[in-house]
Amino acid sequence: MKKLDLYIIKKFLGTYAFMILAVMSIAIVIDVSEKLRDFTDESNNLGFFDVAFGYYPYFFLHYANLFSSLIIFLSVLFFTSFMAQRSEVIAILSNGVSFARFTRPYMLVSTLLLLIALGMNHFIVPHSNKKRLGFESKYITLVEGNFKKVTVEIDSNTIVRFDNINTRHNRVNRLWVEKWRTNKNGTYELYRDMQVDLANGDSIKHSWNLKNVFIREITENGEVVHRYENIEDTLLNFNTKDLAQRSNIMESMSTPELIKFRNSERKKGSTLLTNIEIVLYERTAYPFATYILTLIGVAVSSRKSREGVGKNLIIGLIISVTYIFFMKMTTVASTNVGLAPKIAVWVPNIIFSFMAVILYIQRIKE
């Protein structure tokens, strides 16, 4: 490996490590300020080491991995722009090094970071999220607000769906509680379905007041029994905090566990299936954005500009925001319009791949 490759690789990895640490340091400081009341609550009995080593390493892994591709992109823009402004890029290319050869170490580092991101997304971060979400569920007060159109699996035999939940008032609108069992054929079947117009729950005692309740039960003989009633002080094995926090339970599943969960939900005809597949495909699609964004970053920032480094960084931020917008737009199209999850997840990468190739070819021809 030549000195040029080593020089660029050191620049790339050094800038990436610096930006990851800088961004996550700011994120941790902001998060500590938001959760300080929970950390210092005497009832939680948390010490410095409990928080510093029992929560924030997992917090760091989750968010550093989540923003990894965009930080890689900004790192490439940052150090390559400085190289261009110091005329280093011009000197390299004028000595007979082709632009394709110049970009080789960039792609080598991108490949390394891509492989790391794939391993993190599919196996390491989900395991880390179990620790993070477990800590939050135990010690952190749930942010009050409204959550809409959520389906959660309370246990292996209970599915809960709701249209809207208000955690401040512990009120749930349009609540469904489904009970499932395994029949003689070894497949899941629904044997009890409770539909509730309005439910008010006690977040501590799991006690609920249910209004306008429709209950449908299927006996072992196949007979269907219906009844309507209002139920007060009913004990259900979940509360509003469970419903709101368990909506992100997929983050804590490794890919094999998520595939198993998807197959189980598919048999049940769950409305959660689209969300599961989006999470599943994102774990592969997002790391591959590393290649695309690196190529765009090199093509944009390797030009020397009169406006200095600032112009390249502004262009980079515009591209980043546009990429995030496309990701969100296609995800919403999948959940609300019916766009296939695999297409929804990969479309932003496909669009930006064309952009990357066009910018790269133009840069080669210069």
Give a structural overview.
By secondary structure, the protein is α+β, with helices and mostly antiparallel strands. The protein has 2 domains: 3-140 and 275-365, no CATH class; 146-245, no CATH class. The chain contains 11 helices and 6 strands. The protein has helices spanning 3-39, 48-54, 56-66, 68-85, 88-94, 99-139, 240-245, 255-268, 273-301, 309-337, 341-365; strands at 146-155, 158-166, 171-182, 188-201, 207-218, 224-235. Strands 1-2-3-4-5-6 form a 6-stranded antiparallel β-sheet. A hairpin with a 5-residue loop joins strand 5 and strand 6. Helix 9 runs antiparallel to helix 10. The longest helix has 41 residues, at 99-139.
What would the keywords be for this entry?
366 residues; alpha+beta; 2 domains; 6-stranded antiparallel beta sheet; 6 strands; elongated
List the helices and strands and how they pair.
Blueprint: H1 3-39, H2 48-54, H3 56-66, H4 68-85, H5 88-94, H6 99-139, E1 146-155, E2 158-166, E3 171-182, E4 188-201, E5 207-218, E6 224-235, H7 240-245, H8 255-268, H9 273-301, H10 309-337, H11 341-365
Antiparallel strand pairs: 1-2, 2-3, 3-4, 4-5, 5-6
From N to C, what is the helix and strand string?
HHHHHHEEEEEEHHHHH
Overall mean pLDDT: 84
Count the DSSP helices: 11
For the biggest β-sheet, the strand order reads 1-2-3-4-5-6
**Annotation, overall tally of beta strands:** 6
Q: Residue ranges: pLDDT <50 for 5 or more in a row? A: none
Report Rg.
25 Å
